[in-house]
Amino acid sequence: MTRIVVAIGVICAWASIASAHHSFTAEFDINKPVKLTGTITMVRWSNPHGWIYIDVKGDDGKVTNWGFETAAANALYRRGTRPEDFPVGTQVTIDGYLARNGTPTATSGKLMFADGRAITIGAGAVAGEQK
Amino acid sequence: MATMKQLTAPLLLTLAVTTLHAQGDAQPTNTLPNPYRTIANYFQLPQGREWGSTSAVEIDRDGRSIWVAERCGTNSCAGSNLPSILKFDASGKLVKSFGAGLLMFPHGIFVDRDGNVWVTDGQDDAPRPQGTAANTLSGPPPGATRGNQVFKFSPDGKLLMTLGTRGGAAAPGYFYQPNDVLVAPNGTIFVSEGHGGANSRILKFSKDGKLQKTWGTKGSGEGQLDGPNALAMDSRGRLFVGDRSNNRIVIFDQGGRQLDVWRQFSRPSGIYIDKRDVIYVADSESESVSRNHDGWKRGIRIGSARDGSVTAFIPDPVEKTTGTSAAEGVAADVDGNIYGAEVGPKAVKKYVRAQTTTATPPTRSTGGSAIPRTADGRPDMQGIWQARSRAAYGLEDHPAHFGMPAGRSVVDTTTIPYQPWAAMKQRENFEQRAKADPLAECFLPGVPRIMYMEHPFQIFQMRDAVAMTFEWQQVFRLIYTNGTGPSTPLPFWMGDSRGRWDGDTFVVDVTNHNDRTWFDMAGNFHSDALRVVERYAMLDADTIRYQATIEDPKVFTRPWTISVPLARQKEMGRVLEYQCRAEMEEAKGDFKPEPRTWYQKGSAPVPPLPAEPRPAAAAATQSGIARTSDGKPDLSGFTEADAGGANWGFEPHNEPFTPGGRGVLVDPKTGGLPYQPWARAEKQDRTTPGRGYDDPTAHCFAGGVPRSLYVPSPFYIIQTPTYVVILLERMSWRIVPLDGRAHLPDTIRLWQGDSLGRWDGDTLVVETTNLNGKTWLNEVGDVISHAATVVERFTPVSANVIQYEATVNDPVVFTRPWTIAMPLKRNPKGELLEVACLEDNQDLLHLKDVKERSIQ
Asked: Does B427 touch chain A if contact means CB atoms closer than 8 Å?
């Protein structure tokens, strides 16, 4: 498997990285934060969560397609995010946590564009969640 | 020219057109204004009867009633015993019908000054093998026993006079293919005949039916006619003949002398001239049937019979087609409303001037069967309904297949007008239906399919919204009736529904469809360009005529309409649940029983725990809260729980990777949830990663009570005097009757339980039992069982805040009852969207991986 850059370090506490519909701790591993840069290949504006897929080139040059889970489509929409905010082919950096099942899958926190703009795409800040 | 410039533009246009028609070769009159709004499906046929082709429409002597001669549900009355001559009152209600078994092919209609009704029968029943060149005949082929006659009826339907021989006769014995009939004020009768045959002429009869004169031969020259389809007369007594196949109107005096030729009204299938000499001309063939009139648009042209100007144009909404489309017959009532009778689309449409915002004021039904009405006078459709149709298996005529009983077409076009590629795609869908049908995965069925799925549903009406709650997968529809349009561009499985009342008909415009739903089990489908216009008309207290007009230019050649009766369901008392996906996963073993919490048939009832003194509830402020007309607090509208992180624990919590929570447990105040030991251990176990798969909401199943209210998704409360209904954005619902009924039998267990409500002062108290015990209380695995009784209290404390409490008494899981509390916040501007959780639930596969690894 492609070696990936796993950024272990200061991950700011996402106050509300949470799912609307399933246990995050069951699906993703808080001890495996990840931050990857790649090119968007597909955006699934869907429920119960959206997905953004990016092609990531590993140290060995091999390209792996990673799926990052986002908040639910409705939650993104109510935050002002739109499907067209993520054109296929755009280079982005996404941080998140790895899935426990070992696939190239992660939950997401922030998505950063090359020009420095950032959008919180992860689950959270939806109705009912409070710190 | 200086003078011309001072003229207004419309007058210039009129002058231009007038000049053009005098020149013989008119330019197409396609770009005139259309000040009319179309009302499809205005006329109501008896239950079970569908519209066939119509070309004959006329106004009664009273100026407002409408006569239609209709071809018995298809395009011919041969073999039918339906009455083909129908009279409707101005509200569209059928008030009279006659003519059964008499006419083959009613084509033209006229009401004379005495109110008598004249109808031409334009075909015969002679055997006509395919390919026979009937068009060369000047009379009927041998063997005809019916048809080719003109009938005169009294206003009550008594046959007063018959012109012509049964089955027809060649000239001079008239008729063959009589198209239209007209009676002049002095009683002289005119008939035009020739509809593809070798004849094309006008026949003139005396008042008592004696032939006086004929004129015209088939051809395109002067004095010739080709398929004279329509007759009309202006106030000067000029006879207007719609010389259809010559793309012209020929004007004669009553002796047959040609006075003028007009081409500016396009290819005339129907002509109507009102008392003020406004002329209405229907073109149903240009650029479709007729390829020699390309460049002219089909539709209804309106103008002046005095000077020949064309001033308005109602275009056929169908752009490209090959057959007859739009109105063939046309008439206009004294108020200027236009009626178009259509052969291809099998419909009679009404056109009203658009500035008349309420063209059809709410009309109370006069006589006939009364329909219930709401306090504001609308038809009251509330109650439980069920489609009485095989439409869910196949919209078109279809034979039986395994799991699919045979059925008749419910489509106005009999077959669905697919584009060629789409017809192939539908056949592929049909072959693959066992797996390709979205319902095979229990996805949301979409509109209109959900309406005729043979699963009951309940309708609730408020002023600003109408709600429908369906048994199937607990789907609901929330139809805003507040004058708004779609608030997002997003596609949804169930679309975006906006409703309005058109008289007594509830009209719903459904947009924002995705391209994944089907119309039926037979694989009939659409694209995301779909638009559905639904019409709900109560025919009597127990019947709704449901119609859905389908527009999708990517898939179909023209719009088409589904028509299905909905019958009141009187046996059930409430809509139950069919949680398709949960039942499927349980049957497959993907969601396994938990005997400690699930209800099992035959298990002895568990007595409830002794009640604890209820903690002091928030008191309603008596002012500042909204109230309904019956004085109760108004809880209705878009609402979200300020849930304090309850979906991740009821006690204060602040663990990493989980939303924090302020704690919502108000009783007991210390010690957390009062678990029995086994249940505390089970709750602990559920927090391990391997158990994440077991949370029913990870499978997209319903949240249950009380969890559905504090998951992070909004809901919408519908409130009527007898029901409170909670529509949950995650596509599930809770119905709370307030009518004092008893709970369901113990053996019926539901994901959302059986809720009964009552008002205690300003507090709505809801008691829920009959839970199935399959749900979790939250993502951290708090336990609830089938034995629980949940009592919820909804107390409005200010205009937009409702204090919410839920007390859970579960003798199987806990040692004493406990209570959580949180505010619910109303947002008058909020709109519910749709969470179709099953559409992309990849998480469940990941959680399954984790579970299987932890088991190994």
From this structure: no
Average pLDDT over every residue of B605-612? 90
User: Which residue of A lies nearest to B703 if distances are taken between CA atoms?
Assistant: A21
Is the distance from CB of B225 to CB of B241 less than 8 angstroms?
A: yes
Is B777 at the interface with chain A, CB within 8 A?
A: no
Contacting residues of A for B642, CB less than 8 Å apart = 128, 130
Buried b (16+ CB within 10 A) or exposed e, B521-557: bbbbbbeeebbbbbbbbbbeebbbbbbbbbbbbebbb
Size of interface A-B (CB pairs under 8 A): 146
Q: Pull the structure tokens for residue B501.
A: 């009342």
pLDDT of residue B676: 98
Residue B239 and residue B251 in contact, taking contact as beta carbons nearer than 8 Å: yes
Beta carbons of A128 and B837 less than 8 Å apart: no
Q: What percent of chain B has pLDDT over 90?
A: 72
Of the ranges B30-34, B440-444, B627-631, the best mean pLDDT one: B440-444
3-class secondary-structure state, position B667: strand
Using a CB-CB cut-off of 8 Å, the residues of chain B touching A130 are 642-645, 659-662
A31-124: CATH superfamily: Nucleic acid-binding proteins (2.40.50.140)
ipTM for the predicted complex comes to 0.82
Is B374 in contact with B461 (CB distance < 8 Å)? yes
Q: B140 pairs with which residues across the strands?
A: none
User: Can you give the pLDDT at residue B798?
Assistant: 92
Residues of B with Cβ-Cβ distance to A52 under 8 angstroms: none
Binary contact (B712, A47; C-beta < 8 A): no
Of the CA atoms within 13 Å of residue B64, those in its CB half-sphere come to 8
Interface contact B853-A101, CB threshold 8 A: yes
Name which of B258, B255, B237, B234 is nearest B246 in CA terms.
B258
Looking up tokens 């176990």, which residue turns up?
Answer: B685
What residues of B are in contact with residue A99 (Cβ under 8 Å)? 846
Using 50, 70 and 90 to split pLDDT, how confident is the model at B531?
very high
Identity of residue B573: G
Residue B626 in this model has a pLDDT that exceeds 50? yes
- Determine contact, residues B329/B281, Cβ cutoff 8 Å: no
Cα dihedral B499, B501, B505, B510 in deg (nearest 10): -20
Task: Count Cβ atoms within 10 A of the Cβ of residue B596 and give its class: 0-12 exposed, 13-18 middle, 19 or more buried.
Answer: middle
Helix, strand, coil in percent for chain A, rounding step 5: 10, 40, 50
Averaged pLDDT, B222-243: 94
Give yes or no for residue B113 having a pLDDT over 70. Answer: yes
Candidates B741, B788, B813; CA nearest to B605 is B788
Closest Cα in chain B to A27: B847
Q: What is the mean pLDDT of chain B?
A: 90
Q: What is the DSSP letter of B422?
A: H
For B3-21, the pLDDT digits (tens) are 333 434 444 444 334 334 4
Model confidence pLDDT, tens digit, residues B338-390: 999 999 999 999 998 875 333 333 444 444 458 999 888 899 999 999 999 99
Q: How far is CA B661 from the centre of its chain?
A: 46
Residues of B in contact with A26 (CB under 8 A): 688-693, 847, 850
Q: What is d(CA B323, CA B334) in angstroms, rounded to the nearest whole number? A: 32
Token representation of residue B33: 């204004």
pLDDT confidence of B497, banded at 50, 70, 90?
very high
**Phi–psi pair at B368, nearest 5 degrees:** 65, -160
Q: Where are the beta strands (DSSP E) in B505-597?
A: 505-511, 531-540, 543-551, 560-568
**Nearest-5° Cα angle at B318, B312 to B323:** 110
Q: Where are the domains of chain A?
A: 31-124
